[in-house]
Design a protein that fits this description.
The structure is a single chain. 34% of the residues lie in helices and 21% in strands. With 430 residues, it is of the alpha/beta class. The strands form two sheets. Strands 1, 10, 11, 12, 13, 14, 15, 16 and 17 form a nine-stranded mixed β-sheet that branches. The protein has an eight-stranded parallel β-sheet with strand order 2-9-8-7-6-5-4-3. Helix 8 crosses helix 9. It is elongated and about 75 Å long. The chain starts with 18 loop residues before the first strand and ends in a 5-residue tail after the last strand.
Length: 430
């Protein structure tokens, strides 16, 4: 049976679990809300496609966005987007990781040597050595048009990016060295506030957004000290800071000579890590993992330490544990401020431990504040799942969870009668 054969099947009746599932109506609503905020503010938008890695998800993120800008993390994503390039929807692709020489050469050979290429390919760069080999590859390959580069700024995440005197040296090298002047166009500056996942309020996320904007504006000012005629694209974002921008769209971004561009990816689907920021509620989380209960272990949660004896004696607390067929290859081995590796849709059961193909569920005793803020439903009565029951688990990090699967199964709701209405094939590989 192919994945597409499941279209029309009741979700809870699929023959094999685990599978990753998204509610299409939630994805559409999340994408429309973000685009509405972007359009109202008059800034540009560059959605990241790495969460879903699909044609269908990209269409929902872009909708009628005329710029057709996207950012990718893998070569396979770029190749997969060529279908949308041919349609005229995608026009501008940023490879969102500072590349090694081999990948840079491969991308240039594939997409820049062909003068018929119908999209603009851009690279990130965060070191002088990297800029040098990018320029060298352009010259060696005989590419006639300078390659477009954005400098990756480290605004506090300390993952990729450059700052301080290293930033000044890189800007000077790109704008003044003979090799780069002939082979590279400095298109702008790019900042990703990955550390904003640690924000716990709108105010914190907004402060990080302002830091991002200040960091790229400062870099542009340094560049104009060398070339006063230059104008840049200043790209900022991560889902929490982009969400802050969406919510605070009435605030004016300081206008200057440069174009502000917002980028984000997980906002379209969301997950427990995004819920923990306090910037959304559970009804805005589009993704789930459907899993099956394999075994039931009465009174084991105290023995394993999932519950204390006092917690197990509290009303409405079940001291049992459950075995499910979703482990780290179904949910991913990521945690977050909300404990565990995933949470049942009603917020009652937490995935406390995982192995490769196994997950252990126990009652989540200390989540009352998170569940209240997240607006989880509160059913009148609780029941303990039994062997054979199917459960929907909200993952910690949807980008990593989805990467475990070749297909995303699509529904229009998560109720008991939900039916699979579509299957999206993901672009696997690097």
């Amino acid at each position: 049976m192919s994945a597409a054969d499941l279209i029309g099947t009741k979700l809870l009746d699929v023959p094999v679990t685990p599978i990753v599932v998204v509610d299409r109506t939630v994805v559409e609503a999340n994408c429309k809300a973000m685009l509405s905020a972007i359009n109202s503010a008059g800034v540009a938008f560059r959605p990241h496609v790495k969460t879903h890695k699909t044609v269908q998800g990209t269409r929902l993120q872009l909708q009628d966005n005329r710029d057709g800008r996207v950012v990718c993390s893998t070569l396979q994503e770029i190749e997969g987007l060529c279908e949308l390039v041919d349609e005229g929807l995608v026009k501008d692709i940023l490879y969102g990781i500072p590349p090694g020489r081999a990948k840079a050469r491969r991308l240039m050979q594939r997409y820049l040597l062909d003068k018929r290429s119908r999209f603009k390919l851009r690279f990130l760069c965060d070191s002088v050595t990297q800029a040098q080999f990018l320029a060298e590859e352009v010259a060696k390959l005989g590419i006639e048009v300078p390659v477009s580069v954005m400098i990756k700024i480290d605004c506090g995440t300390h993952r990729a990016g450059v700052a301080g005197t290293s930033l000044e040296k890189l800007i000077a090298y790109l704008l003044t060295s003979k090799l780069c002047v002939q082979t590279i166009e400095l298109y702008g500056f790019y900042s990703h506030a990955g550390h904003s996942y640690g924000s716990r309020s709108l105010e914190q996320a907004a402060a990080m957004l302002e830091t991002e904007i200040s960091s790229v504006q400062a870099a542009a000012s340094i560049a104009r000290q060398l070339r006063s005629d230059l104008k840049f694209v200043l790209s900022v974002g991560a889902t929490p800071t982009a969400r802050a921008f969406e919510i605070l769209q009435h605030r004016q971004i300081a206008k200057g000579p440069d174009e502000i561009e917002i980028h984000a990816g997980c906002y379209a689907f969301n997950d427990l890590q995004q819920l923990a920021t306090g910037l959304l509620t559970v009804d805005q989380i589009a993704g789930r993992v459907l899993t099956e209960v394999l075994s039931h272990y009465p009174n084991r949660a105290v023995t394993t330490g999932a519950l204390s004896s006092a917690e197990a004696d509290e009303p409405d607390i079940c001291p049992d544990e459950l075995l499910i067929d979703a482990g780290c290859l179904g949910l991913a081995r990521e945690t977050g401020p909300i404990p565990g590796y995933g949470l049942s849709e009603d917020g009652r059961w937490v995935v406390t431990r995982i192995s490769q193909e196994h997950g252990i569920l126990a009652i989540a005793p200390n989540l009352s504040e998170t569940l209240r803020k997240g607006k989880f439903p509160a059913p009148a009565t609780w029941s303990v799942p039994v062997e054979g029951d199917r459960l929907l688990i909200i993952p910690q990090h949807m980008c990593i969870t989805a990467a475990n699967f070749r297909h995303i199964h699509v529904v229009d709701s998560f109720d008991d009668e939900a039916v699979i209405v579509d299957v999206w094939e993901r672009w696997a590989g690097h």
